[in-house]
């Protein structure tokens, strides 16, 4: 159990609920248990916690040596906060926790954690999915994969763009 962590409140009041976000870009390993513990610190009105953790996976046609993510400091955090704000505009959320790692990572390292709390499970599941879809589309990260076949900067996938588009009709 994590007891010695500091909350990162935004202090926004909406519909009589104190909403707080934790948005961070880190160069060290992500502790997904910390994210859930952070959400549980304020359980009033919470009936659901949903968390997604993305990890480095193998490449289909090469042996991955490492993956490297770069970002634009300051701009990246603003983009993540904007995504969190869009999620709040759509669903009644209590807290949002987004931590994204940058730097070199190897197989099974945690790359991103998105976790949300809400009174109801549907809002929590949908908001977490929305945040990941928009993060993949809008957050300024650049990915390089280094493998036994060389090094390549990875282009944004059409499937990531399509995933975010599904939310436009549901606005």
Summary keywords:
five-stranded mixed sheet, disordered N terminus, 9 strands, 30% helix, alpha+beta, four-stranded antiparallel sheet, 171 residues
Q: Whole-number average pLDDT?
A: 88
| Rg value | 17 Å
Strand tally is 9
Low-confidence stretches: 1-18
Number of helices: 4
What's the arrangement of strands in the largest beta sheet? 1-2-5-7-3
Termini Cα gap: 38 Å
Structural class call reads alpha+beta
- What pattern of helices and strands is seen along the backbone? EEHEEHEEEHEEH
User: What is the 3D shape?
Assistant: globular
Main sheet? 5 strands, mixed
- Multimeric status of the protein: single chain
| Percentage of residues in helical conformation | 25-40%
Strand content: 35-45%
Short description:
With about 170 residues, the protein is α+β, with helices and mostly antiparallel strands.
Structure description:
It contains 4 helices and 9 strands. It is α+β, with helices and mostly antiparallel strands and 171 residues long. The strands form 2 sheets. A 5-stranded mixed β-sheet has the order 1-2-5-7-3, sandwiched between helices. A 4-stranded antiparallel β-sheet has the order 6-4-8-9, with no helix packed on it. The longest helix is centred in the C-terminal third of the chain and has 18 residues, at 121-138. The chain starts with 11 loop residues before the first strand and ends in a 6-residue tail after the last helix.
